UniProtKB/TrEMBL annotation:
Record's protein name: Glutathione S-transferase family protein
Domain of life, per lineage: Bacteria
GO molecular function: transferase activity
PROSITE patterns: GST_CTER, GST_NTER
Family statement drawn from the similarity comment of this UniProt entry: Belongs to the GST superfamily.
Record carries keyword Transferase: yes
InterPro entries membership: Glutathione-S-Trfase_C-like (IPR010987), Glutathione-S-Trfase_C_sf (IPR036282), Glutathione_S-Trfase (IPR040079), Glutathione_S-Trfase_N (IPR004045), GST_C (IPR004046), Thioredoxin-like_sf (IPR036249)
GST N-terminal domain location: 1-81
One protein family per Pfam: GST_C
Domain GST C-terminal positions: 84-208
Entry keyword set: Transferase
DNA repair keyword on record: no
Length: 208
């Protein structure tokens, strides 16, 4: 049985919940109250080395980091979500964009909108005085520009006629863009790509 250590407001957890729904895998969910610091225990550290969510146990195997979880699930249960060899580099590059560029722009920008600055600073590992929201906005604008250019010419991020785990990785926080006060209508290629994902069989929306 798969067990997902989860929080309903986490975009990274949502990526995993969405992918599990798209591939039709049953799992049990364990709520981790990160706002109450319930992840900061020795017990949870045995599942997630950095005490972060999401984490997944698959039998005796524990996997943490949303992208590692997506790839684990695809390799073991849904290989059709992996790009073929000629495009596998593109798939991994866009997963890296999710883990780096999006994680350092849209993700923290949205966090400052949905929790207090003090709470956002805690989760980002900085002092509240170092929160630079205008810089987050500028980085987000650059990321959106690159995504818009890519999706203007490609239906899916890794190319080809079908989505890959790269699309789910990047979609997690782009599904929540409005919570970061982003007008997706100003990015029509991204908006069309979001709609394509929302029309996939098994799709589930973000949120509790």
């Amino acid at each position: 049985m798969l067990t997902l250590y989860d929080h309903p407001r986490s975009g990274n957890c949502y990526k995993v919940r969405l992918f599990l729904a798209l591939i039709g895998r049953d799992y049990q969910s364990r709520f981790v109250d990160v706002l109450a610091r319930k992840n900061q225990t020795a017990e949870f550290e045995r599942v997630s080395a950095f005490q972060q969510i999401p984490a997944l146990t698959d039998g005796d195997t524990a996997i943490w980091d949303s992208h590692a979880i997506l790839l684990h699930l695809a390799h073991h249960y849904a290989p059709e979500w992996l790009a073929p060899l000629p495009r596998i580099g593109a798939m991994h590059a866009w997963i890296s964009v999710s883990a780096n560029e999006i994680a350092n722009s849209l993700q923290p920008l949205r966090l400052t909108r949905v929790v207090s600055n003090a709470e956002a600073a805690h989760h980002l590992g900085v002092s509240e005085a170092l929160l630079d929201v205008p810089a987050m906005q500028a980085r987000t604008d650059r990321v959106l520009l690159r995504l818009e250019k890519r999706l203007a010419d490609h239906a899916w991020l890794a190319g080809g006629d079908a989505p890959t785990v790269a699309d789910i990785a990047c979609y997690g926080y782009l599904a929540l863009a409005e919570e970061a006060a982003i007008d997706i209508a100003a990015h029509p290629a991204i908006a069309a790509w979001r709609k394509r994902i929302q029309q996939l069989p098994g799709y589930v929306p973000p949120g509790p």
